[in-house]
Structure formats: C-alpha cells, structure tokens
Amino acid sequence: MRKNIVVLSGAGISAESGIETFRDADGLWQGHDVMTVASPQGWQENPKLVLDFYNQRRRQLLNVIPNKAHDTLVKFEKIFNVIIVTQNVDDLHERAGSSNVLHLHGELLKAQSTQNASLIYPCLKDIYLRDVCELGSQLRPYIVWFGEDVPKLNEAIAKVMNADIIIIVGTSMQVYPAAGLVSFVSRNTPIFYIDPNPAVNDALGCADNVTLIKKNASQGLIELTEQLSKICFV
Prior knowledge:
Helix content: 25-40%
Order of helices and strands: EHHHHHEHEEEEHEEEH
CATH topology of the largest domain: Rossmann fold
Strand order of the largest sheet: 3-2-1-7-8-9
CATH class of the largest domain: Alpha Beta
C-alpha cells in the first residue's frame, strides 16, 4: 500500500525560485508594519496600500518558475500519496505538477469578495479599488490575514493525523496556527525537518521521530529521497 506523505512547506522552498519574503530583518514588510498590509484593520484603514502590496507580490510571482525542490516533490508522487500543506500563497507547487496542494493562508492568484467569502475568482492581474464581485462589493486578495480564521486548518489537521511520513521544508514552524500542526503528528510517525539553520521549537523538540537535514530545500529533498528509499524499501 502506498504511504501517505504530508509535506508542510513554507517560504524557504519558494525562496530558491527568487520569491522575496518581503519581511526585512526588522520585521517590516517592504517598509510596512505587517498589520498595515496583512490585517483586516489595515484593509479598513488603507485598502489601496494593501492592494498595491499584493499587486506587487503577484507581479513578481508571475515572473518566477518552480525550482528543484518543487520538482522533487512531484517525483515523490510516483511512489507515495503526497499531500502538500503549504503556508505559501504562490502557485509554484501546482506549476511544478503537484496534484494535491492545500493552501493554509490563501492564494495570491485569486481574488475574494469582501461581502461573501465563498465568492473566489482567478486573478492574474492587479486588483484596483472599484474592482467588484458579482454582488457589487470590492474585491480583496484571497489571503488569510493576521487575526482572521484559517478556514482550511481542520482539513490540514486531518491530513497530518493520517500521515505515514511528515516532511517539513522551508518553514521553521514557529508561526501559529500552522506551527500547531506538528502537535497532531503521531509519535510513531517519522518527521523529516529540512532547514539549513533549523529552529527546533517546543512542538518538535528533540523527539526520536525527528530527523534534521541541515540543507536548503532542494538539496535537502534530494538527500531525503535516498533516506526514504531505505526506510520505505522503494
């Protein structure tokens, strides 16, 4: 029977494609406090600034391509049932060919109605003020902002609980609620944590089921391919 691999991915896997994190060393996002561009309050106070911020990110996304890390995860699908639970809002996993991707924090290439959150539209261009949904309400980025519920969190928890193997790549798993997913992993489930400078949090600790691979995303996944071939006899 094919094993279920759940991949928890974050910004580090997309960084190798040239996507900027937008977060500076001082915690600012392109010179803005995070709450001004990624919160309901920021949206209410200055929607044009918020739209400009995400328009810039969307333009950048459309000018990059998936990297070897994305490609390696696609290859895993030949042997395993692979589910990717990502904190990323880009579509690089999908463009690489991954067939089962769950976006915890939304998707940059979609827009959402401010009146009805279930009205979601493809979006490959800039969003401007006065761009409206079919109900006549302003469109906003389809992004889960700080202070908002994470609609797909329970679905992600269910997938993690059903995993035979967990791969953490490109994320330090320090930001909640995504970081809390690790607490739902069975103690007997192998966890492979790929990061050149891993920050082992309380949830991961130094548990016996955690294997650290201190490399970047693409190199770490290549090394992991060899390890999986041994433990899974494939």
